[in-house]
Design brief:
Blueprint (H helix, E strand, L loop, with lengths): L5 H46 L18 E16 L1 H7 L2 H21 L3 E2 L6 E6 L8 H25 L6 E16 L5 E5 L1 H11 L6 E4 H7 L3 E11 L3 E11 L14 H26 L9 H17 L4 H13 L11 H12 L7 H12 L10 H10 L8 H14 L6 H14 L5 H19 L7 H23 L1
Parallel strand pairs: 4-6
Antiparallel strand pairs: 1-3, 1-4, 2-3, 4-5, 6-8, 7-8
Helix pairs in contact: 1-8, 2-3, 3-4, 7-9, 8-9, 8-12, 9-11, 9-12, 10-11, 14-15, 14-16
Length: 497
């Protein structure tokens, strides 16, 4: 097909890019699944062996213990360390208990802010404070979460310092440092889990804090490269790191104006939140695809996690081709992720159950109620026969049935046949081919992008499947052709309307 304009060239490039990403994601997911299965099998074998050995014959650290500490490793965590000085000076101007109470009140406010941004309080000694993002739940947004929390903490510190100065009271010296990298975590406790973290990432965070000026947020280049898109910074020297040379440091000034709802640049606006959710989508996708892989019935040869990945990619591709906004792209990809998840609960009416799952999951990922409602509308729009009411629903329906116009249509279609056959919903492949020809004849893509990319191939698919159908006699074949003609006329009339 000749390339007629730049837009079409861009779409073909995006298709190639998304297809490659899909293949890499499938490969990575299969790798993780295999590693997880091998690990679980090995653990089961070891537990079986240990169960047969009397405890007194086992080393102390190998004996079963419900409250036993757990060593965890996180490849990317972001550490916020607040270096606090002045306890002795403040205690001299008032009694020690008052100084301790003031410090506790500061920690209380810090904890509220940390909890708001899903950060984990880390065990510290004395008058220091530390939280970490990406611990104990791994995520891709932890550098952003920590910097946002630090901005709120710095604002609170500034307000508190002003109040103390107006009353001519001594105030604490606080310096904030942030660094991102791998950490080792120790978790312990029964009723309440506590965490301690170790590693060079933590050491650098403490040194970055020590190199900061009072009340300022100093971050390492490790964090800077991950959040530079969202915040404004001021270069602040460098820090020598053993075996690594020097690492640059930056002061966080504020959110960029286009991402802030206030003049100080502390609190994010709707535009920022959309970008945040798009970045967070990778975490949500990983969680749900893993759930689909584990919990979908084994007879779902078509409606499996691979189909979900395919629809996500096609929704993104068609959405880009139709020029939708970033938020609309987010809604499409999220709806695609959940559109078949309801099969975990029930095959019939799975769209409804997929919507219910979205309502359960998405509030935890900071989606608004309005966004969730729109995502559910997109999920329900995929129910056959498709009757989309707006552009996003049209994109969603086209993405869900994209395979109808692809070269791999027949093998993909056969997986759907095997799925229906396993449930006793269809008898023979010959009957299935007749159904497919009728469906293809009556089907039309709703968007210009899908029609440009796929519609040409659909006519070829019909002819390919017709050749596979076996007829008892010529009369039956002619009757079938007449029926197809009527279906085609109705489809054209509906499309025109």
């Amino acid at each position: 097909m000749p390339i007629e304009n730049q837009k079409e060239l861009d779409l073909i490039y995006q298709l190639h890019k998304i297809t490659k990403e899909k293949q890499e994601l499938e490969k990575e997911l299969q790798k993780h699944i295999k590693e997880k299965q091998e690990f679980q099998q090995r653990v089961g074998e070891l537990e079986s062996i240990l169960a047969q050995v009397p405890p007194e014959f086992l080393p102390e650290n190998a004996r079963p213990n419900v409250g036993q500490d757990k060593q965890l490793k996180f490849d990317m965590a972001t550490v916020l360390f607040i270096d606090i000085h002045g306890f002795k000076r403040i205690a001299e101007s008032k009694n020690t208990q008052e100084a301790i109470d003031e410090l506790d009140q500061m920690f209380y406010e810090f904890n509220k802010i940390a909890q708001k941004h899903n950060l984990q309080r880390i065990k510290t000694i004395g008058d220091t404070y530390m939280v970490a993002g990406g611990v104990p739940v791994k995520n891709n947004t932890n550098p952003i979460d920590v910097v946002l929390a630090a901005l709120e903490m710095a604002k609170y510190i500034h307000q508190l310092r002003k109040e103390y100065e107006e009353k001519q009271l001594q105030f604490w010296e606080l310096r904030l440092g942030i660094n991102t990298g791998p950490v080792r975590a120790l978790a312990w406790g029964r009723k309440k889990i506590n965490y301690d973290i170790k590693g060079e990432t933590v050491n650098i965070a403490t040194r970055v804090a020590a190199s900061s000026d009072l009340d300022k947020i100093n971050i390492s280049a490790n964090t800077y490269v991950l959040v530079t898109e969202y915040f404004e910074f001021e270069k602040h020297g460098s820090l020598p790191i053993k075996y690594e040379g020097e690492i640059d440091m930056y002061y966080v000034k504020r959110l960029k104006p286009e991402f802030s709802q206030d003049t100080e640049g502390i609190y994010p606006n709707h535009t920022f939140k959309v970008k945040y959710l798009l970045r967070q989508f990778t975490d949500l996708q990983e969680i749900l695809l893993d759930k689909l892989e584990r919990e979908l019935p084994p007879y779902l040869y078509y409606h499996n996690y691979k189909h979900t990945i395919d629809v996500i990619n096609q929704a993104e591709l068609i959405g880009l081709g139709e020029g939708v906004s970033e938020e609309e792209l987010l809604l499409l990809k999220t709806a695609a992720l959940f559109h078949d998840a309801g099969h975990i609960i029930q095959y019939e009416n799975h769209e409804y159950y997929g919507c219910q799952m979205a309502r359960e999951y998405l509030p935890k990922f900071k989606y608004t109620q309005e966004q969730i409602d729109r995502i559910c509308e997109l999920i329900l729009a995929t129910k056959l026969p498709p009757k989309p009411k707006n552009l996003l629903e049209k994109i969603m329906c086209d993405a869900d049935l994209d395979y109808l116009g692809r070269q791999d249509f027949i093998p993909v279609s056969n997986t759907l046949y095997e799925e229906l056959k396993a449930q006793g919903k269809i008898d023979s492949l010959n009957e299935w081919n007749k159904i497919q020809v009728k469906f293809l004849t009556g089907h039309q893509y709703f968007t210009e992008t899908a029609n440009r990319l796929r519609e040409v191939n659909k006519e070829k698919q019909i002819e390919r499947i017709k050749k596979l159908i076996k007829w008892d006699n010529e009369v039956e074949r002619q009757k079938f052709e007449q029926e197809l003609q009527q279906i085609m006329e109705r489809a054209k009339a509906n499309h025109t309307n």
